[in-house]
């Protein structure tokens, strides 16, 4: 998606040669117009999949997910990284190692929001080692629902997540695929 790649080139900051900071449009300040274009692209790529729900993880996957849910007129669920006090015990959980925080969390979704006949599109902001997406897919499967695909805003293709998810049988659609970071530059596939 050219618009997204241009935005990454213009505003992205590379940290430690492995992390991309895109706080000005995705991870802190959010550009709603760009998020809508991202959502339109996900809808186009997953056309015909009869999606009934979007599933993401807090916090940075939510914006693109809500826009996608708005176009498709389907609910958007986000997994919690910590169990809120108001959430009961009737939950699905999956253990996810956080790439950016360097710690494991049990991500949590109330069981009432996923049913066996759901066709779920998983969306996330970044794909690195595939932990977050695999944890979300695991929860969908605990609910006996179907993962129709995984939509990623920015894939770091030099890390193993995309290959791992494809090898596990999931369809992964990433809107910007980064081949490498070199000399402070982002190089796309
Ligand atoms: P994974 O679970 O695929 O290893 O990592 C994906 C998760 O880690 C995403 O939900 C995202 O929050 C975070 N993440 C991974 N790499 C980056 C990065 O380069 N920049 C930012 N901002 N977040 C990242």
Automatic annotation (TrEMBL):
Cellular localisation: Cytoplasm
Pathway: Purine metabolism; XMP biosynthesis via salvage pathway; XMP from xanthine: step 1/1
EC top class named in words: transferase
GO MF term set: xanthine phosphoribosyltransferase activity
Coiled-coil spans in chain: none
Residues annotated for xanthine binding in this entry: 20, 27, 156
Single GO biological process annotation from the record: purine ribonucleoside salvage
Key words of the record: Cytoplasm, Glycosyltransferase, Purine salvage, Transferase
Binding site for 5-phospho-alpha-D-ribose 1-diphosphate: 128-132
Catalytically driven reaction(s): XMP + diphosphate = xanthine + 5-phospho-alpha-D-ribose 1-diphosphate
A cellular component term, taken from the record's GO annotations: cytoplasm
EC annotation from Swiss-Prot or TrEMBL: 2.4.2.22
InterPro entries: PRTase-like (IPR029057), PRTase_dom (IPR000836), Pur/Pyrimidine_PRTase (IPR050118), Xanthine_PRibTrfase (IPR010079)
Primary role: Converts the preformed base xanthine, a product of nucleic acid breakdown, to xanthosine 5'-monophosphate (XMP), so it can be reused for RNA or DNA synthesis.
PANTHER family the UniProt entry points to: HYPOXANTHINE/GUANINE PHOSPHORIBOSYLTRANSFERASE, XANTHINE PHOSPHORIBOSYLTRANSFERASE
Family: Belongs to the purine/pyrimidine phosphoribosyltransferase family. Xpt subfamily.
Assembly notes: Homodimer.
Protein name as catalogued: Xanthine phosphoribosyltransferase
Gene: xpt
């Amino acid at each position: 998606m050219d618009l997204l790649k241009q935005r990454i080139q213009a505003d992205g900051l590379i940290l430690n040669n492995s992390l991309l900071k895109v706080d000005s449009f995705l991870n802190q300040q959010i550009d709603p117009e760009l998020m809508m274009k991202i959502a339109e692209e996900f809808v186009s790529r997953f056309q015909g999949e009869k999606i009934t729900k979007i599933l993401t993880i807090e916090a940075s996957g939510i914006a693109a997910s809500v826009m996608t849910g708005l176009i498709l007129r389907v609910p958007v669920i986000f997994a919690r990284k910590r169990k809120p006090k108001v959430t009961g015990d009737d939950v699905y959980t999956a253990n996810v190692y956080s790439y950016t925080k360097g710690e494991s969390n049990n991500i949590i979704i109330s069981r009432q929001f996923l049913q066996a006949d759901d066709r779920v599109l998983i969306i996330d902001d970044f794909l690195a080692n595939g932990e977050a997406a695999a944890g979300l897919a695991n929860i969908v499967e605990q609910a006996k629902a179907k993962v129709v695909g995984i939509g990623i805003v920015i894939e770091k293709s030099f890390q193993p997540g995309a290959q791992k998810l494809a090898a596990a049988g999931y369809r992964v659609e990433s809107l910007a695929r980064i081949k490498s970071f070199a000399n402070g530059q982002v190089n796309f596939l």
